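Can you make up a polypeptide sequence alongside its tokenized fold?
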Amino acid sequence: MSDNSGNLRSRRWFGTQDVAGLIHRAYLSSEGISRSAVAGRPVIGICNTWSELVNCNLHFRTLAQAVKRGVLQAGGLPLEFPTISLGEAFMKPTTMLYRNLMAMDVEETIRANPLDAVVLLGGCDKTIPATLMGAASVDLPTIMVTGVPTEPAVYCGRQLGAGTDLWRYTDDFRAGRMTDSEYQDLEAALVPSVGHCPEMGTASTMSAIVEALGMSLPGSAFIPAVDARRYSVAEATGRQAVELAKQGLRPSQVMTIESFDNAITVLMALGGSTNAVIHLLALAGRLGLDLALTRFDEISGLVPLIVNVRPSGEHLIEQLFHAGGLPAVMSRLEGALNLDCLTVTGRTVGENIAGAKVFDDAVISSRENPWQASGSIVVLRGSLAPRGALIKRSAASPHLMRHRGTAIVFDDVDDLAARVDDVEIDEETVMVLRNSGPKGGPGMPEWGQLPVPTRLLRKGVRDLVRISDARMSGTAFGTVVLHVCPESADGGPLGVVRDGDPIVLDVDARRLDLDIGEAELHRRMSEFQPPAPKYRRGYGALYLDHVMQADQGCDFDFLRRLGGEPFESEPLGLVGGPIMGW
């Protein structure tokens, strides 16, 4: 690969012998960084999503130090910068409301500053796609280190997934099968260390997606947060960032449409989070790639579930790492992958996974002997979802895959909370939640896993068909239809469903229908009035004016790159810029 070190972007800030160069070097020297430290060296930005409001990312200060060591070892100059951070546990109504804002922050910071390459540090799930979307929009050489999972909790002698098992125990608590004291013991045990959820939730899924796309080092996706090898990988990432700066290898050269096919293939084989569909659609839009929801369903029909990890299986990410990690998974998918795709290592996918071994067939199976034949995530269409909806079949109940039932409708999450245990719901009922999508939520919160009524839990009923325009946590499970598009607040048919309406779900046929007849549906749609917007000022109003629907990744319309449109990698006013400001 060519050497770009003689044409470093940062030299336009630090390498000129004029007042602009003097000012840039002088202000850098105030940090104790000498002129020789920057002369001819690639400047590597380290985008850090550390925050005390995001426990999953709390170890990122130490992780950044490891990246810096690697940059210095390779002869670069590391400069760390912060960005806003998004934590699922605390932010309301949802971190998804702020993913695009964070991506804008990252994009503009990278573009405006003297950086030759960027290392992204992301963990708790929206910080991974947000930083990657921002960096992709600038298209400077980029590589990522993900935060990876927490140490598994142990409760009553059993390892727990922080989300998946929490939902099961919460149902037991609501049904009276678990005492207050036992629930408090669960609380104390649930999150024993830094790192994100230790099952195949959205964060673990996105960590795998980054590696599958070729944007992180091979084998890095699943190293536990408390494992020293996480810091060794971060150090190696810093060294590789310097090489990327010298070579000029850009995200658009790595994240091609073939790379996205690889990422979708891995998503299906892992039984990964439905949230990854939205993030991949948004990321492809930033790169100007024509990725449609139909492609997910095409690949879903070809790729079996081969990884036995919660919520679609039994194990946790720690066991998946020890079984060989993502290279081992990808080695079992070779015939379904584009092996010639370039990665940030400078090598191809095929070269990166050559020699990878599976050490535990109980965790990583094969295409010939899968845990599920195909379709861990299925795209549904029909009169209730003209532009699509998703169901995670690998984490749903087989007996509900073909179902006809009458609807009980909740107008929003407050209505759900107030009435879920009071309305007449039985095993055949289809629970419907609306006004929970990108505009209705707003932000498309993770409200899609509607709670099963307490009365049914006490009878031993664990699952019902549930439909909404919301998302759900990647750690969640059940026969839950999500991302109904268009959403109810944007004029979708979900907005006109009434109590007692028959709804038909047929997963094998990829169908989701409101069975009231075309004429009645048309009449109701003609009379429909969407709810008033939730925001009238500030970022919220900007969000509502420009957010796209789930089938387009919920990105802002003005942030998508048109095919063939050049990337805007340089800031305005770079030449002589400081003079004009003084």
Q: What stands out?
A: Residues 378-527 form a domain with the Glucose Oxidase; domain 1 fold (CATH 3.50.30.80). The chain is about 35% helix and 10% strand.
